[in-house]
Amino acid sequence: MNCRKVQSLMSAYVDCELSGLEMLAVRRHLSECCECKSESESLFRVKKALGSLCAKHPASDLVNRICSHLEQVTLPRGNLLVAAMREHLTIFPARLRWTVVGMSVFAVLLMFRAGQMSTNQPMFTAALPNAHFIGMAEQGPIPLIQGVPAEFAPFSAAPLPTPTKQPWELPEYPEGTLGSMGLTLTGYPK
Amino acid sequence: MVELSDTMSVACQSEDRKIFNELVHRYHKQAYNIAYRMTGNHADAEDLTQDTFLKAYRFFGNYKRDMPFDNWLYRIMSNIFIDWLRRRPKASIRSLDEPVRQEEGETVFDLPDSAEGPETLTLSRELDAEMQAALNTLSEDFRLTVILSDIEGLSYEEISEVMGCSIGTVRSRLHRGRKILREKLRPYLE
To answer: Is A18 on the interface with B (CB under 8 A)?
Structure first.
């Protein structure tokens, strides 16, 4: 340890606020370095002189004056509430309090999870056989309000009406129309 | 519910008041001694002590009971003192022997009762005055650190708690404060 390092630790050494290894290292250095030893002794004298200062005593009526002024102090509202809460909650030890809080949080999470699981059941299983659906969700088909015609529902659990024509068959157009002649509006055949 | 909380608040307030009165009686001398060493004169020391206890009572609801009350009180005192210094241009330095004008006439500061001889008492008073004058030349941070360590005997950890700084900062401030005092008090220490 060099002089610069030791001098930075000098006050802490005088106050015995160093670790054991540091104390030994500083002491070893002081036994070899007269300048640092003189520095530590002068700091020790300052500490001792300050410690020997006589205590200053207050006037005998100071405490009564302070206590009388306390009545004029208006406490913040928060202070009263905190004090009331502290008074109420000290009935329960801290460990019990945190156990109750933890169990309450656990119960809330359980209820939330149970609610989620009940909504996951497919809605169509509760629906009537001829109920119609307005779309698909992850959980299953979303039912349409009963009473809406089936043709407005893209998905339907009800059997679709049998088509009169097959898809490859041309539709029937009225007599005299372009379609009846197999033509489009542009005049070209379809 | 509101009436119950109000009743509890009033009950807690009276209970807190009783506890705080006891704390004032227990710590006012110690607080005054530190206040005197910080301000350098009795009048300011009394004002600082009173302001400290009034502020401590106002925020007694925020006091964490696991922290020593005196450490918490000294923290309040140092904050109030720093606010004072910011508002005032400079702290006034008054000699112990300077007569104080009061309504009843002039008087001198109370001196500690000592069993030592008159010569020793004179030297002690002179050294006390010189040391206080030297303390007054330190910045408020250095001054408070030196007072808490060398006059009140607090550990570095306690000082860091009071001043809201790291132990390294306490060590540095104490070392620099002592070095300044050593230079100013060299004729008295050697």
So the answer is: no
A102-131, pLDDT tens digit by residue?
A: 898 889 899 888 887 665 544 444 444 554
- Residues of B within 8 A of A43 (CB-CB) are 175, 178-179, 182
**DSSP at A152:** G
Range of A36's domain? 3-51
Name the domain count of chain A: 2
Is A173 a member of any domain?
no
**Chain B residue with minimum CA distance to A16:** B155
A37, pLDDT greater than 90: yes
Identify whether the C-beta of residue B36 lies closer than 8 Å to the C-beta of residue B42.
yes
B188 touches chain A (CB under 8 A): yes
Tokens of A147: 């009473």
**A78 belongs to a structural domain:** no
Query: Model confidence over B45-83: pLDDT tens digits?
Result: 999 999 999 999 999 888 888 889 999 999 999 999 988
Tokens 């029937």 correspond to: A172
Q: Domain B1-93: give its CATH code.
A: 1.10.1740.10
User: Residue B174 in contact with residue B146, Cβ under 8 Å?
Assistant: yes
Amino acid (1-letter code) at residue A80? L
Query: In chain B, which among 115-154 make CB contacts under 8 A with chain A?
Result: 124, 127-128, 131, 146, 149-151, 153
Per-residue pLDDT at A145 exceeds 80: no
Q: What is the DSSP secondary-structure string of B9-71?
A: HHHHHHHHHHHHHHHHHHHHHHHHHHHHHHHSSHHHHHHHHHHHHHHHHHTGGG--TTS-HHH
For residue A84, tell me if it sits in a domain. Answer: no
- Contacting A residues, span 74-133, partner chain B, CB-CB under 8 Å: 74-76, 78-84, 86-88
**pLDDT in the model for residue B114:** 44
B21/A70 touch (CB, cutoff 8 Å), yes or no: yes
Residue span(s) of chain B under CATH 1.10.1740.10 come to 1-93
Q: Do A56 and B42 touch (CB under 8 A)?
A: yes
ipTM of this complex > 0.90? Answer: no
Judge: B29–A58 Cβ closer than 8 Å, yes or no. Answer: yes
Asked if residue A125 belongs to a domain, the reply is: yes
Q: Does A53 touch chain B (CB under 8 A)?
A: yes
The fold adopted by the segment(s) B108-190 is Arc Repressor Mutant, subunit A (1.10.10)
Specify the pLDDT at position B125: 76
